[in-house]
Amino acid sequence: MQTSGTILILTGAGISAESGLGTFRDSDGLWEQVPITEVATPQAFVRDPQKVHDFYNMRRQAAGRAQPNATHHALARLQRDWPDPVVLITQNVDALHEAAGSTALHMHGALSGAVCAACDHRWPAPALMAPSDACPHCGKAATRPDIVWFGEMPHHLPAIDRHLSDCALFVAIGTSGAVYPAAGFVAEAACHGAATLEINAAATDVSEAFEQHIIGPASTVVPDWVD
Ligand code: BV8
């Protein structure tokens, strides 16, 4: 491992798998249980808001019971001890990075957040959300989970682009590389001269875009890599 320079880390559902939260595209993944088009698009929310709220209520309750694992703690140590910035971008919507002491940019939103589709007001999500919930700001029954669905613009893209252009090392951990624009970050970092490392339980759709690979369960290989 190098000894200095900004490290940019992208995490995915694979790092929360060992905290008991489901991934999306493994054989028992969430998208194997329910189609994306029924619960993770704006059209799905218009068509059946109760079904979408039920899906995210179930995940918010599971995330609330989960504890950070050795991967989250190792990344928090790296952020604390590395001599240069360590920027964490996560596709995950749980709060396990924060629970381990990290700061992270949540590009796909957060289960802990609610947003009003009418006035864009944001507030902490209650444990259970329902279509009849009124926005505390404008009073309209237009509240939704603060989640970035397919077809919606992810959060923090300008900041992420800046980090991609000046990081010394780009690391992807626990992500299948199936979803854009996150899956394209490795190519962007590499064309700006960053070294690239993929840490994952198995090879992915974008493995060949990385220079280095560590294969194994994150909670074993990430602490070894960090320490
Ligand atoms: C957008 C909601 C406009 C939150 C999610 C090209 C450019 C831009 C867009 C597109 C494009 N091509 C196609 C698109 C459209 C689309 C897309 O990518 N579709 C895919 C399916 C082809 N993208 C979008 O719609 C995005 N928005 O494009 O806006 C735009 C245009 C231009 C530029 C910017 C914007 C919106 C994407 C966000 C959608 N919301 N979810 C939620 O419900 O959680 S995406 C969903 O997938 C989750 O957020 C999840 O985080 C994300 C990625 O999944 P992973 O985290 O990688 O999880 P997965 O299960 O797939 O993989 C887990 C991996 O872990 C596996 O590899 C496994 O081996 C590994 N693993 C398992 N256990 C372990 C492990 N590894 C280590 N240790 C273990 N123990």
UniProtKB/TrEMBL annotation:
Gene Ontology terms for molecular function: histone deacetylase activity, NAD-dependent; NAD+ binding; protein-malonyllysine demalonylase activity; protein-succinyllysine desuccinylase activity; zinc ion binding
Subcellular location: Cytoplasm
Needed cofactors: Zn(2+)
PROSITE patterns: SIRTUIN
Record-linked SUPFAM superfamilies: DHS-like NAD/FAD-binding domain
Binding-site positions, Zn(2+): C116, C119, C135, C138
EC number: 2.3.1.286
UniProt keyword list: Cytoplasm, Metal-binding, NAD, Transferase, Zinc
Family: Belongs to the sirtuin family. Class III subfamily.
Protein name, per record: NAD-dependent protein deacylase
Species annotation: Puniceibacterium antarcticum
